[in-house]
TrEMBL record:
Isomerase found in the keyword field: yes
UniProt keyword annotation of Phosphoprotein present: no
InterPro entries registered for this protein in UniProt: Chorismate_II_sf, Chorismate_mutase-related, CM_bact, CM_dom_sf, CM_II_prokaryot
Full protein name: Chorismate mutase
Keyword terms: Isomerase
Gene3D superfamilies named among the record's database cross-references: Chorismate mutase
Region described as Disordered: 1-21
Superkingdom of this protein's organism: Bacteria
Domain spans labelled Chorismate mutase: 21-112
Amino acid sequence: MAMTHDTPGSTGESTTEGIEESVREELLALRDSIDNIDAAVVHMLAERFKCTQRVGRLKADHDLPPADPAREARQIARLRELAVSAKLDPAFAEKLLNFVIAEVIRHHETMARS
Ligand SMILES: C=C(O[C@@H]1C=C(C(=O)O)C=C[C@H]1O)C(=O)O
């Protein structure tokens, strides 16, 4: 899953110059909320990885396999249902979860080797 994109804003120019004041205010207010949501996502992911690191330790100590495909299938089915009820594209929710799980499994594989 490609998680990067071009970032034209990273060179310093802003899209909020030269636009109507009320539009600019609404855009800035929405961006404030987006920044808060992004911060929450980072904090939630950090907590999730704290848990998965502990799972990885348990698995490494007890010679359990890094991945559990049956568990993943249940998580994906559940997340797709949650996405539908939240009006989020379930295919996107599945891709995102798979992306996170792939990283977790990579960590668990590293822990199993050490
Ligand atoms: C965290 C675990 O290890 C792996 C990672 C998972 C996850 O990130 O949710 C789920 C299943 C496993 O493939 C687990 O087995 O619970």
